[in-house]
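User: For a benchmark we're assembling, each entry needs the component sequences followed by a predicted structure for the full assembly. Here are entry 17's components. Please fill in the structure.
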Amino acid sequence: MPEPLTPDALLALDRQHVWHPYGPMPGTAAPLLVESASGVRLRLGEPVEGRDELVDGMSSWWSAVHGYNHPVLNDAAHGQLERMSHVMFGGLTHEPAVRLAKRLVDITPEPLQHVFLADSGSVSVEVAVKMCLQYWRSLGKPRKQRLLTWRGGYHGDTWQPMSVCDPDGGMHELWQGVLPRQIFAEAPPAGFGAEPDAAYAAHLRELIGRHAEELAAVIVEPVVQGAGGMSFHSPAYLRVLREACDEHGVLLVLDEIATGFGRTGALFAAEHAGIAPDVMCLGKALTGGYMTLAATLCTTAVADGISRGALPVLAHGPTFMGNPLAAAVADASIGLLLSQDWQQEVKRIEAGLRDGLAPAARLAGVREVRVLGAIGVVQLDHEVDMAAATRAAVREGVWLRPFRDLIYTMPPYITGDEDVARICAAVCAAAREG
Ligand SMILES: *Cc1c(COP(=O)(O)O)cnc(C)c1O
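Assistant: Structure for entry 17:
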């Protein structure tokens, strides 16, 4: 065992050498040191604001739906570790990947029959885009190579995904002339339960029709736009996209990396609209937050199209494709989710968030409070003071990571009522002080 490092030494080395998400080097705000995590609690290596434990309001960026250190997922990881943690996927296969693929095909919309396992959400979006472009090339339509999306979206940080992130929030300015230029519709009108706006539906149809010749695919996050602004929209617009794509010969990609596995109250957000995409991306909660894994699913029509081309293969194959350890944990995580009344848990959390966040609507500086499934959002009328808001939440014993004008939570589904109330109190405190 290496010599243990003190918390101070770790934080000093972190500052000197370690890059953090969306941060400068060296970092400006010191991260909190986590020593371990169990259930819904993060145990800190060094107390902060008098707290040595925090209730996790973030599920580690939507992923840890069953909480931390879960015995079922631990068993799956240990069991697989003793057989093999990894073998290459070229020319070899194994039970964890096959079982996982079959399970994903069984639980996603029926037309999705084929599974490409990728190593992160962004890569699964790259693969989805490659599938769509290659499909049209194979069919002799190489001009169909652009993408259409609506504003306010987020699809990851590698190049193709970045090109369909919201152009205002997504640093497009910085990458003008470098990113592929995609086609942007206006952001969908807000409100999951709002009456669909006929003028907006017409706008979507018109744009898809006008650009059909050069469009390979429409790609959107269904029902909830996550990291692009935490906004909800009517599932009716997904039906509009499905119809317009069918009418004009354009593929539809649904990025369910954030919404998949029950977060919005449906197992997949596409179910709210009763539609099936041609390609679907999954990630985040796929392994219950244990490790990185993502998947791109497609229909038989897309797979057949690609396989009829001059290059009759999908030209993609990450080194760690199909990683057995990740696949075994993912299969166990989905099994665990489906073995319980998860809809009831999500509904229970939804009710707790509605109750607990209602007082925030009366605070000065709050523009809107919205809740859908196990997602609670308080939108301010100004940019959050990150340091002050985070400190306020920590003082309440809760971990939150606000961004832009948003203080939000998507707790693990195992979060008990008292902890949901505590998270809501922390969101309110962060809204008051941030
Ligand atoms: C997080 C996210 C991604 C990117 O996934 P990574 O694993 O971070 O690469 C893509 N799309 C959506 C909708 C996401 O929420």
